[in-house]
Design a protein that fits this description.
alpha+beta, 11 helices, 8-stranded mixed sheet, binds flavin-adenine dinucleotide, 29% strand, 36% helix, 370 residues
Length: 370
């Protein structure tokens, strides 16, 4: 292990690896340490939105289609109404987390990043960290250690703009040719069931809910069409769960310690934006290193999270209110072009200001009649 590095990244999940690659691409020496051994898995709906894919490509990371599946847009359904929209600027991509991790690890290795799996960071000093009992000096310490970030706690950044809230997600994979070119989101009064194509013959099925006791089987019972689709398909992974937390930090840096990915705050998984945000933050962080200005990163971080936070609030409102959800989906079914434009806003392809008054009024009218 190098005893001195420009950037030391604690946590080698997608955010940590992306931040490491972005910094290395800018010429900095980088070390990454993760307690887990690669390839690291995590319960996830496994969709990367188009803006996230663009940020990955900018890092020089390309995901081959033999290990993934493109999706052209998003489809919402509640069993009574359904509406779908295509992305304006090219598809998103579904890929297994383990595959994404392998690809990022390969890229990091090829870029000359000093990687350490099975390595727990146990202490820190003003000029570095202690990892597996060895002191490593660094100029910047990056906390990419996820929801329960040790770096966030240790650096005193555990101060929130609003109280954190949690939901629970479970996922499984099935061997079946994806039946749709969209990520399908099935809304129920108990949560959302996601179906993401993740390979030529594989789908990821995830259920997100406020109730930790609800599992995928409970969601399937509400959607007979999913049961029919998955009948006879091989189940290829065990059900795995994860917590989805909504958390907004007051600040994402302190001195030369800085946070990225879920360690730096998160939006509910309902948006499918977590990975995209992390990949965009990685670029912003590398740029800030170059300018030696972490305040610049903080303001970019705020900009990156603004839209996903707004979308998450809107979607969680629909999650909580059955009446509002049913009416909204009926009204959107009648105004699919508005859904297309909302999706374009969600992925950053269209500024919110471009949703015109006429469209809003037309939606309002359909909502009232729905
Ligand atoms: C149910 C669910 C569905 C989701 N679906 C989607 C989706 O479809 N699309 C999307 O974009 N996002 C989705 N997300 C969000 C996405 O999973 C996260 O945004 C993403 O995992 C964040 O990556 P990260 O690297 O910040 O954190 P993590 O992936 O949690 O990685 C953190 C890493 O830090 C390591 N670590 C922790 N502590 C230490 C320590 N002390 N020392 C060293 N290493 C440490 C861990 O081992 C881990 O590898 C979903 C989330 C959930 C819960």
């Amino acid at each position: 292990m190098r005893l001195e590095t420009d950037v030391f990244v604690v946590g080698g999940g997608p955010a940590g690896l992306a931040a490491a690659i972005a910094a290395r691409n800018r010429g900095f020496s980088v070390t990454v340490a993760d307690v887990a051994q690669p390839p690291i898995d995590k319960a996830c709906a496994e969709g990367i939105m188009p803006d996230g894919l663009a940020a990955l490509r900018k890092l020089g990371v390309n995901i081959p289609l033999d290990a993934a599946a493109s999706f052209q847009g998003i489809r919402f359904s509640d069993g009574e109404s359904s509406v779908q929209a295509r992305f304006a600027q090219g598809p998103g991509l579904g890929t297994r987390r383990t595959k994404l991790h392998e690809i990022l690890i390969d890229k990091a290795g090829a870029a000359g990043i000093d990687m350490h799996g099975g390595a727990r960071v146990t202490g820190s000093a003003p000029d570095g960290v202690t990892i597996n009992g060895i002191n490593v000096r660094c100029r910047w310490l990056v906390g990419a250690d996820g929801q329960n970030s040790w770096v966030r706690c240790w650096s005193g950044l555990d101060s929130f703009r609003t109280p954190p809230s949690t939901r629970f997600g479970f996922r499984r994979h099935y061997r079946v040719v994806p039946w749709s070119e969209f990520v399908e989101v099935y809304w129920t009064k108990h949560g959302q069931l996601y179906v993401t194509p993740v390979g030529p013959e594989e789908v990821c099925v995830a259920f997100l809910s406020r109730n930790a006791k609800l599992r995928l089987e409970d969601a399937f019972a509400l959607f007979p069409e999913i049961n029919v689709r998955l009948r006879g398909a091989d189940l290829i992974t065990r059900e795995q769960g994860a917590v989805s937390t909504t958390r907004a930090l007051r600040s994402v840096y302190c001195g030369s310690t800085v946070l990225v990915g879920e360690a730096s705050g998160s939006v509910d998984a309902i948006t499918g934006d977590g990975l995209s945000m992390a990949f965009q933050q990685a670029h912003a962080l590398a740029e800030a290193f170059l300018n030696d200005d972490l305040a610049q990163y903080e303001s970019e971080h705020r900009r990156i999270e603004r839209l996903p936070r707004m979308m998450a609030s809107l979607m969680l409102l629909l999650d909580r209110n059955d009446w509002l959800r049913a009416r909204s989906l009926r009204a959107l079914e009648a105004s699919p072009q508005l859904f297309t434009r909302m999706l374009a806003v969600h992925t950053g392809e269209l500024p919110l200001s471009r949703i015109g008054m006429e469209e809003t009024l037309s939606f309002g009218w359909r909502f009232l009649r729905a």
